[in-house]
Amino acid sequence: MTKESxxxxxxxxxxxxxxxxxxxxxxxxALIAPGTTPASAPTDTYSPRVYAISAASQAFLARLxxxxxxxxxxxxxxxxxxxxxxxxxxxxxQAWQAAQTALAWxxxxxxxxxxxxxxxxVFGVAWHQEKFQRLESNxxxxxxxxxxxxxxxxxxxxxxxxxRTAAGIHHDSRPYGDMGLVLHLDAELPHQNIAMQWFTGDxxxxxxxxxxxxxxxxxxxxxxxxxxxxxxxMALPEDERNKNLEVRLAAISNGRLGRLTARSPMFGFPLFxxxxxxxxxxxxxxxxxxxxxxxxxxxxxxxxxxxxxELIRVLGDKETYRGPGDxxxxxxxxxxxxxxxxxxxVATDGLHRLFAVQAAPVAWARNVGMQCVDHLPFIKRxxxxxxxxx
Length: 390
Ligand SMILES: Cc1cc2nc3c(=O)[nH]c(=O)nc-3n(C[C@H](O)[C@H](O)[C@H](O)COP(=O)(O)OP(=O)(O)OC[C@H]3O[C@@H](n4cnc5c(N)ncnc54)[C@H](O)[C@@H]3O)c2cc1C
Fold this sequence. Notes:
By secondary structure, this protein is an alpha+beta fold. It has 2 domains: 5-37 and 48-75 and 109-174 and 273-355, FAD/NAD(P)-binding domain; 175-270 and 361-388, D-Amino Acid Oxidase, subunit A, domain 2 (D-Amino Acid Oxidase, Chain A, domain 2). The protein is 36% helix and 30% strand. It has helices at 13-24, 55-63, 109-122, 162-167, 227-235, 238-253, 300-317, 327-356, 360-374, 377-388, and strands at 5-9, 28-32, 50-54, 76-78, 80-84, 90-94, 104-108, 126-128, 132-136, 139-142, 147-149, 152-155, 171-187, 194-199, 204-213, 216-226, 260-262, 267-276, 279-280, 283-285, 291-292. Strands 5, 6, 13, 14, 15, 16, 17, 18 and 21 form a 9-stranded mixed beta sheet that branches. Strands 8-2-1-12-20-19 form a 6-stranded mixed beta sheet. A hairpin with a 5-residue loop joins β5 (80-84) and β6. The longest helix has 30 residues, at 327-356. It starts with a strand and ends with a helix. The relative contact order is 0.18. The structure holds flavin-adenine dinucleotide. Flavin-adenine dinucleotide binds next to α1, β3, β13 and α7. The site of flavin-adenine dinucleotide has 30 residues, from α1, β3, β13 and α7.
């Protein structure tokens, strides 16, 4: 019996996880992705992109066999979360309140990619270090002119997704007009494995715990703010920018971690709310190719990995007489993902809107609301479940 064939396009975390998971599930998988395996980082240097990996994503990566391939010293469990409103409201979520060991793990993008690259290679998957170029009937052409046929093409090729365009899948994109600024900071005080977030009215600041190094304590910053404000900060000469940053972070964080000073370059990402139709005959999209949400809850990649897990489940459960590219099968995947994706869109977009309103009654209500939730153990358990993706 010939194995059903799947082509995965895109060598980001979602594409590599899809490739590995489908290969393990018995499909004949090939990957189209340029790029080399990231090298192990030097001990005290941390790559600028870090993710809050939910408990559900952690369990999926463990099932794929890659969680234990990562350097445990570089993974930070988030044992609690502190959220501060703009008018004295605050919320404190602890993993133990929902009988969990961690709400999430903070992991460098490069560390997950390195483990996935190695696992995909060990599994002997055909890997074409080329770019997807076009789709004709069910034949894929790469930028070297190679033609590849498959029963299913999985587009894991990021937010601009050439696969989505080639397959003519409907896509809506709404720019927030905000940018997310990321960099690592030296912190004067220990973070105690607590993730912290401040809603200031015109920006949202998150500080995520990273391992201590010889230079002391460190946290990763994700600060989303209006584009003009972000560009003005990024345009300052480095010294001036770092001083400006230190003063503003001290004011927002109210000295919660003592002095905070830049320890890495700063990067900026424009933020979008995107959604797509996700499937077409012979084509399925996963992760950023299919949707994007505001990073205030740190859930974009977690949603993407849940797509991958669901696609593997649906393909594994399909009737033998249907191929993996059968639209009926792919609709099952789309339907199963519709509700969790919508819930995350509504939650992140709703929070973003709620805290963007400056009117005094709204500001008062949201801060009082936070105080109330902080005293309701049942709702807190529910929120902790949401944060950990369980
Ligand atoms: C500031 C910020 C903070 C965030 N923090 C978090 C967080 O804490 N937790 C979380 O879960 N999510 C977070 N996210 C979201 C997360 O970054 C994305 O959801 C995630 O990176 C998507 O991964 P992906 O594999 O789908 O896409 P990508 O990482 O974009 O990978 C797509 C891949 O496809 C390749 N590709 C593109 N075109 C082609 C082609 N023609 N042929 C072949 N390959 C191609 C690209 O080279 C790339 O390797 C954050 C996002 C932002 C902006």
